[in-house]
């Protein structure tokens, strides 16, 4: 039986109280919400916090709101809520795509978007989604709130821009006209970490050309989106030849390692193929949004 090292526990009454508790208990204090990332690491004693600050009761951090040209999502929003949201599916189908392939219903019922992003696991799905959507993270500390573009939020494997005495409180997604997005994932079995996954977000001009595009890959050593693909696609008419060229760039740009999930050549092939698929679907969804 795997048992965590001893720790103390305290329940936060508000975001400000959670930040105060983190400051009071020092660098060995961690917040816990769904716990699906932190608790397994504690059982293996890869993480040994002396204090757990429970933020599950902070209902003001659990919301999905359309606010003008922004979709605002509280950090404690559960995966299931994102999956079932009509606003999310309409505005950002890539989020719905990703939520369908995150773990299983038990995990989705308890896990939160904030917990997933702060864990900063290189194989985690929502980091790629937030990158391609140019999301912004809102981080709160004792001195107030600050906004960090998602491209700067992840500092490396298991490291984010959230300091030990700060709290991720919200993620903001800019809503764009004539936009489409998509996410696809290859996994060894249902609910597993990705062998490779890809996400794309595009916007179209009035005449149907690509005004902007972003492609990101999961689990193959890429930090953020692939700028060469954005440059290739901008101003072009969507076509299979264009998608194939973008796929070839993905296969070259990624840095996979051989492991139990597959050899390097296989992962490069998946990066190529999944890039084509998500661009094809994102462009089709953008065209549909334009017609609607």
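^ Assign residues to that structure.
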């Amino acid at each position: 039986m795997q048992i965590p090292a001893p720790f103390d526990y305290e329940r936060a009454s508000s975001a400000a109280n959670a930040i105060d508790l983190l400051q009071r208990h020092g660098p060995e204090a961690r917040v816990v919400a769904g716990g699906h990332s932190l608790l397994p690491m504690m059982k293996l004693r890869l993480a040994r916090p002396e204090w757990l600050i429970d933020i599950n009761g902070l209902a003001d951090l659990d919301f999905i709101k359309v606010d003008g040209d922004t979709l605002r999502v509280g950090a404690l929003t559960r995966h299931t809520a994102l999956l079932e949201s009509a606003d999310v599916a309409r505005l950002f189908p890539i989020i719905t795509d990703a939520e369908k392939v995150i773990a299983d219903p038990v995990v989705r019922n308890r896990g939160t978007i904030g917990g997933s992003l702060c864990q900063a696991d290189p194989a985690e799905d929502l980091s790629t989604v937030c990158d391609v959507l140019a999301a912004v993270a809102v981080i709160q500390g004792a001195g107030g709130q600050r906004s960090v573009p998602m491209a700067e939020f992840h500092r490396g494997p298991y490291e984010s821009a959230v300091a030990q005495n700060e709290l991720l409180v919200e993620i903001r997604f800019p809503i764009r006209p004539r936009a489409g997005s998509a996410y696809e994932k290859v996994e060894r079995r249902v609910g597993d970490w990705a062998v490779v996954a890809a996400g794309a977000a595009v916007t179209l001009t009035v005449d149907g050309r690509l005004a902007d595009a972003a492609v990101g890959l999961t689990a193959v050593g890429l930090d953020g989106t692939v700028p060469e693909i954005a440059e290739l696609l901008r101003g072009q008419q969507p076509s299979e030849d264009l998608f194939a060229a973008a796929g070839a760039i993905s296969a070259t740009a990624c840095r996979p390692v051989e492991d139990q999930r597959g050899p390097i050549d296989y992962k490069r092939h998946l990066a190529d193929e999944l890039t084509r698929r998500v661009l094809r679907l994102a462009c089709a969804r953008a065209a549909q949004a334009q017609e609607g």
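The first strand starts at residue 8 and ends at 11.
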